[in-house]
Amino acid sequence: MLIYQLVNGYCYNSDTYFLYNFILYNLEKLKNPKGDILDVGSGSGILGLLVAREYENMILSQVEIQKDFCFLSKKNAQINQIKANMYEGSFFHIEFDKKFDMIVSNPPFYHTNSLKSENENLKIARYNTNFTLNDFIQKASKIIKPNGRLFFCYDVKQINDIIATLYKYKFNLEALQFVHPFKHKDASLVLVYAKKSSNSLVKICPPAIVFDGGDYSVETFHIYQKASTHSIKCEL
Q: Rounded to an integer, what distance in angstroms lies between the CA atom of residue 100 and that of residue 145?
Protein backbone atom coordinates (compact mmCIF):
# COMPACT_ATOMS: atom_id res chain seq x y z
CA MET A 1 0.00 0.00 0.00
CA LEU A 2 1.42 3.36 -1.08
CA ILE A 3 0.82 6.22 1.36
CA TYR A 4 1.59 9.83 0.53
CA GLN A 5 2.53 11.95 3.57
CA LEU A 6 3.44 15.57 4.16
CA VAL A 7 7.12 16.49 4.27
CA ASN A 8 6.53 19.09 7.00
CA GLY A 9 3.51 17.68 8.75
CA TYR A 10 2.29 14.91 11.01
CA CYS A 11 3.31 11.43 9.82
CA TYR A 12 1.86 8.16 11.02
CA ASN A 13 4.00 6.02 13.32
CA SER A 14 4.01 2.65 15.06
CA ASP A 15 0.86 3.58 17.04
CA THR A 16 -1.19 3.18 13.87
CA TYR A 17 0.34 -0.19 13.03
CA PHE A 18 -0.25 -1.59 16.50
CA LEU A 19 -3.84 -0.33 16.47
CA TYR A 20 -4.40 -1.91 13.04
CA ASN A 21 -3.06 -5.23 14.34
CA PHE A 22 -5.18 -4.95 17.51
CA ILE A 23 -8.33 -4.45 15.41
CA LEU A 24 -7.56 -7.52 13.30
CA TYR A 25 -6.80 -9.59 16.39
CA ASN A 26 -10.15 -8.73 17.99
CA LEU A 27 -12.17 -9.29 14.82
CA GLU A 28 -10.55 -12.54 13.77
CA LYS A 29 -13.43 -14.64 15.13
CA LEU A 30 -15.90 -12.88 12.84
CA LYS A 31 -16.33 -14.81 9.61
CA ASN A 32 -17.28 -11.89 7.39
CA PRO A 33 -17.07 -8.42 9.01
CA LYS A 34 -19.21 -5.96 7.09
CA GLY A 35 -21.00 -2.67 7.46
CA ASP A 36 -20.04 0.99 7.69
CA ILE A 37 -16.72 1.99 9.23
CA LEU A 38 -15.66 5.55 10.09
CA ASP A 39 -12.01 6.59 10.49
CA VAL A 40 -12.00 9.67 12.74
CA GLY A 41 -9.17 12.12 12.12
CA SER A 42 -8.02 10.14 9.13
CA GLY A 43 -4.80 12.09 8.47
CA SER A 44 -3.16 10.42 5.50
CA GLY A 45 -5.90 7.80 5.64
CA ILE A 46 -3.65 4.88 6.55
CA LEU A 47 -5.65 3.31 9.41
CA GLY A 48 -9.01 3.20 7.67
CA LEU A 49 -7.44 2.10 4.41
CA LEU A 50 -5.59 -0.79 6.05
CA VAL A 51 -8.76 -2.00 7.78
CA ALA A 52 -10.85 -1.58 4.60
CA ARG A 53 -8.23 -3.49 2.61
CA GLU A 54 -8.54 -6.35 5.09
CA TYR A 55 -12.35 -6.42 5.11
CA GLU A 56 -13.66 -5.89 1.59
CA ASN A 57 -17.30 -5.90 2.70
CA MET A 58 -16.83 -2.90 4.97
CA ILE A 59 -17.76 0.50 3.56
CA LEU A 60 -15.15 3.10 4.53
CA SER A 61 -15.85 6.70 5.47
CA GLN A 62 -13.26 9.16 6.74
CA VAL A 63 -13.55 12.45 8.63
CA GLU A 64 -10.75 15.00 8.75
CA ILE A 65 -10.62 18.69 9.67
CA GLN A 66 -7.36 19.70 7.97
CA LYS A 67 -7.63 20.39 4.24
CA ASP A 68 -4.19 19.01 3.36
CA PHE A 69 -5.00 15.73 5.09
CA CYS A 70 -8.40 15.56 3.40
CA PHE A 71 -6.58 15.76 0.09
CA LEU A 72 -4.06 13.08 1.11
CA SER A 73 -6.75 10.72 2.46
CA LYS A 74 -8.66 10.94 -0.82
CA LYS A 75 -5.50 10.62 -2.92
CA ASN A 76 -4.29 7.57 -0.96
CA ALA A 77 -7.69 5.89 -1.22
CA GLN A 78 -7.69 6.48 -4.97
CA ILE A 79 -4.18 5.18 -5.69
CA ASN A 80 -4.82 2.09 -3.58
CA GLN A 81 -8.18 1.50 -5.30
CA ILE A 82 -10.20 1.59 -2.09
CA LYS A 83 -13.57 3.33 -2.15
CA ALA A 84 -13.91 5.88 0.65
CA ASN A 85 -16.31 8.69 1.45
CA MET A 86 -14.72 11.82 2.94
CA TYR A 87 -16.47 14.08 5.46
CA GLU A 88 -14.49 17.32 5.47
CA GLY A 89 -14.65 19.33 8.68
CA SER A 90 -14.85 18.90 12.44
CA PHE A 91 -15.95 15.49 13.69
CA PHE A 92 -17.91 17.29 16.41
CA HIS A 93 -19.82 19.64 14.11
CA ILE A 94 -20.66 17.40 11.16
CA GLU A 95 -24.19 16.01 11.02
CA PHE A 96 -23.50 12.49 9.73
CA ASP A 97 -26.10 11.06 7.38
CA LYS A 98 -25.88 7.56 8.82
CA LYS A 99 -24.73 5.56 11.83
CA PHE A 100 -21.70 3.31 11.80
CA ASP A 101 -21.03 -0.31 12.67
CA MET A 102 -17.44 0.48 13.59
CA ILE A 103 -15.45 3.60 14.46
CA VAL A 104 -11.64 3.60 14.47
CA SER A 105 -9.31 6.41 15.44
CA ASN A 106 -5.76 7.34 16.31
CA PRO A 107 -6.83 10.62 17.95
CA PRO A 108 -4.67 13.45 19.28
CA PHE A 109 -4.04 12.42 22.87
CA TYR A 110 -1.12 14.42 24.24
CA HIS A 111 -2.33 16.36 27.26
CA THR A 112 -2.92 20.10 26.92
CA ASN A 113 -0.17 20.74 29.49
CA SER A 114 2.44 19.04 27.27
CA LEU A 115 5.02 21.11 25.42
CA LYS A 116 3.52 21.88 22.03
CA SER A 117 5.10 22.07 18.61
CA GLU A 118 5.06 25.43 16.82
CA ASN A 119 3.84 23.65 13.67
CA GLU A 120 0.07 24.21 13.56
CA ASN A 121 -0.43 21.01 11.56
CA LEU A 122 1.33 19.01 14.28
CA LYS A 123 -0.54 20.76 17.09
CA ILE A 124 -3.92 19.74 15.70
CA ALA A 125 -2.82 16.17 14.98
CA ARG A 126 -1.09 15.49 18.33
CA TYR A 127 -2.65 17.50 21.15
CA ASN A 128 -6.11 17.11 22.62
CA THR A 129 -6.74 20.83 23.14
CA ASN A 130 -9.63 20.82 20.66
CA PHE A 131 -10.28 17.08 20.67
CA THR A 132 -10.94 15.94 24.22
CA LEU A 133 -11.48 12.31 25.18
CA ASN A 134 -14.92 13.12 26.57
CA ASP A 135 -16.06 14.91 23.40
CA PHE A 136 -14.70 12.11 21.20
CA ILE A 137 -16.46 9.28 23.04
CA GLN A 138 -19.67 11.30 23.48
CA LYS A 139 -19.92 11.99 19.73
CA ALA A 140 -18.98 8.40 18.90
CA SER A 141 -21.81 7.16 21.13
CA LYS A 142 -24.32 9.21 19.13
CA ILE A 143 -23.31 7.98 15.67
CA ILE A 144 -22.56 4.33 16.35
CA LYS A 145 -25.13 1.57 15.90
CA PRO A 146 -26.34 -0.62 18.78
CA ASN A 147 -23.56 -3.15 19.50
CA GLY A 148 -21.24 -1.04 17.32
CA ARG A 149 -17.50 -1.37 17.85
CA LEU A 150 -15.10 1.43 18.82
CA PHE A 151 -11.33 1.04 18.45
CA PHE A 152 -8.77 3.69 19.39
CA CYS A 153 -5.36 4.18 20.98
CA TYR A 154 -4.51 6.63 23.76
CA ASP A 155 -1.94 7.77 26.27
CA VAL A 156 -1.77 5.00 28.88
CA LYS A 157 -1.43 7.54 31.71
CA GLN A 158 -5.05 8.53 31.09
CA ILE A 159 -6.44 5.02 31.54
CA ASN A 160 -8.71 6.09 34.43
CA ASP A 161 -10.38 8.72 32.26
CA ILE A 162 -10.72 6.25 29.37
CA ILE A 163 -12.59 3.68 31.46
CA ALA A 164 -14.78 6.25 33.24
CA THR A 165 -15.72 8.03 30.01
CA LEU A 166 -16.58 4.83 28.15
CA TYR A 167 -18.86 3.82 31.03
CA LYS A 168 -20.43 7.30 31.08
CA TYR A 169 -21.54 6.96 27.46
CA LYS A 170 -22.75 3.36 27.67
CA PHE A 171 -19.73 1.69 26.07
CA ASN A 172 -18.57 -1.63 27.50
CA LEU A 173 -14.83 -2.21 27.58
CA GLU A 174 -14.20 -5.38 25.57
CA ALA A 175 -10.39 -5.56 25.32
CA LEU A 176 -7.20 -3.69 26.22
CA GLN A 177 -3.63 -4.08 25.06
CA PHE A 178 -0.69 -2.22 26.54
CA VAL A 179 2.19 -1.21 24.28
CA HIS A 180 5.69 -1.01 25.83
CA PRO A 181 8.69 0.60 24.10
CA PHE A 182 10.94 -2.09 25.63
CA LYS A 183 10.25 -5.28 27.59
CA HIS A 184 11.34 -3.82 30.92
CA LYS A 185 9.87 -0.33 30.40
CA ASP A 186 6.46 0.90 31.49
CA ALA A 187 3.70 0.93 28.88
CA SER A 188 3.37 4.19 26.97
CA LEU A 189 0.25 3.44 24.90
CA VAL A 190 -3.01 1.59 25.42
CA LEU A 191 -5.14 0.09 22.65
CA VAL A 192 -8.86 0.11 23.41
CA TYR A 193 -11.76 -1.92 22.08
CA ALA A 194 -15.21 -0.98 23.36
CA LYS A 195 -18.68 -2.01 22.29
CA LYS A 196 -21.95 -0.14 22.62
CA SER A 197 -24.42 -1.65 25.11
CA SER A 198 -22.50 -4.90 25.64
CA ASN A 199 -22.10 -6.90 28.86
CA SER A 200 -18.98 -8.92 28.04
CA LEU A 201 -16.11 -9.22 30.48
CA VAL A 202 -12.96 -7.34 29.50
CA LYS A 203 -10.07 -9.20 27.88
CA ILE A 204 -6.48 -8.11 28.55
CA CYS A 205 -4.41 -9.00 25.50
CA PRO A 206 -0.73 -9.96 25.77
CA PRO A 207 1.51 -6.87 25.98
CA ALA A 208 3.05 -5.57 22.77
CA ILE A 209 6.78 -4.76 22.81
CA VAL A 210 8.02 -2.31 20.18
CA PHE A 211 11.80 -2.75 20.43
CA ASP A 212 14.16 -5.58 21.31
CA GLY A 213 17.56 -4.06 21.98
CA GLY A 214 18.31 -1.63 19.17
CA ASP A 215 15.98 -3.25 16.64
CA TYR A 216 12.27 -3.75 16.24
CA SER A 217 10.93 -6.78 18.09
CA VAL A 218 9.89 -9.84 16.09
CA GLU A 219 6.25 -8.93 16.76
CA THR A 220 6.71 -5.37 15.48
CA PHE A 221 8.50 -6.63 12.39
CA HIS A 222 5.64 -9.03 11.62
CA ILE A 223 3.04 -6.26 12.04
CA TYR A 224 4.94 -3.97 9.67
CA GLN A 225 5.29 -6.87 7.25
CA LYS A 226 1.55 -7.59 7.37
CA ALA A 227 0.66 -3.92 6.81
CA SER A 228 3.08 -3.77 3.88
CA THR A 229 3.06 0.01 3.39
CA HIS A 230 5.43 2.30 1.55
CA SER A 231 5.54 5.97 2.52
CA ILE A 232 6.15 8.76 -0.01
CA LYS A 233 6.83 12.26 1.32
CA CYS A 234 5.30 15.14 -0.65
CA GLU A 235 4.61 18.86 -0.49
CA LEU A 236 1.20 20.41 -1.12
A: 6
